[in-house]
């Protein structure tokens, strides 16, 4: 194991070198903007750490963080580590039942409660005996203590330095089915990932990031929290969906990571203001095209971006092409909670359509006899908390992580995923179908916002689709016939590129919009296939018998 500087050691170093340098920028609900320096962050974390040390809690105990992204999410995390304890982040939109599951399973002793939309619904999930501490940005409600109470403690005077193999966090996977598993990462996992990432992207103190994807997810944890420590990056936070454009323009991030759904939302926002055909025409003009591209990116707050990354789910090739025409090269990232999100990333100038890119430095990759992608590095988890059996299933004897993805590599080391092993279904004809590649082909149509291909036990697969907001407006008006004709043409085009057993019987346009709130998406915006199949399964036989290319499920 290579010796890396641990996260807290890096923090102490930066805190001492530039105590008054701006570290975090936090917008407030009243429109004010709070700026926190490295010394202010250190002071608050040290006082909270002293309070934790003063509780009747053993070293290594688990401490939960339940909050949307905010400055004090990270400060609480630092305090937990300084106190010699383990942080357990929870998604801010869990049900009370899920909150209880995670807190009981992790045996958390304290929960820091921050920005939440529905604390009233979540609060009943807090087990008896778990102290709740309200962070500065918190919902209405009663708490055992407030962050200000912890700040009455004197700051710790030492600089605790946890060992590399000491447990740092337990990240409960959002999962598409079943009870989430607690992924254990030690400090070396984070140190390796952050050190390699800093060198890979040449991250420096001149960089800025906007934190808006859940910090409880490993991607944001590595991309925002760890890059801020190891690269000295300034962190800007988003206040809300309503202020998101203002927040991103304030930050003007130089490195920007988003899931494909966010990149699609940006695209749809642009096309809602300027028809696709007109934008395509303007972008095709040599001088005007570059100017228009810069103007569009500036409107999105992305004109200063030097690295634009997309990951956590497959990104359609058409989306890469659209942004490239604007002058922004999207680079795909591939990783899992179980390896700190650090596995593969496409390098600038080496984009190969349909392929993710090359493995990251320090990552070994091989394809199993069954076609599964296996990866190994110092970012690999220590295992699942209290789940030795599931840990043994996830890791091979040589320590490689079973990703659950089928894939292949080319001679240059590029990786292409061909489907999830568990998502591949068998039709009634006994033929296997991987839904993800078909969904990616259909995603070239910007009026389709969400797509899920189903087909287990069916004669032919079906595509269940959610229209974009613009397309829904077309469907409710005079443009319905034209929209339907366009979608039929898309279906014919997609089917023409598929083997006979993969071809879609039809497209079903449902009125529901799949969201985290209604249970169709995970907190990381991945489609829950099992939920979709159970919600619409009673209609499958009827839809297949009707044999229409485009069906409207009102």
TrEMBL record:
Xref: Pfam families: AMP-binding, AMP-binding_C_3
Ranges for domain AMP-dependent synthetase/ligase: 13-385
TM helices/strands, residue ranges: none
Keywords: ATP-binding, Nucleotide-binding
Keyword Acetylation attributed: no
InterPro entries assigned to the protein according to its UniProt record, in alphabetical order: AMP-binding_CS, AMP-dep_synth/lig_dom, ANL_N_sf
Signal peptide start-end: none
Entry's Gene Ontology molecular function annotations: ATP binding; long-chain fatty acid-CoA ligase activity
A Gene Ontology term for the protein's cellular component: membrane
Gene3D superfamilies (alphabetical): N-terminal domain of ligase-like
Annotated protein name in UniProt: Long-chain acyl-CoA synthetase (AMP-forming)
Upper taxonomic lineage: Bacteria, Pseudomonadati, Pseudomonadota, Gammaproteobacteria, Pseudomonadales
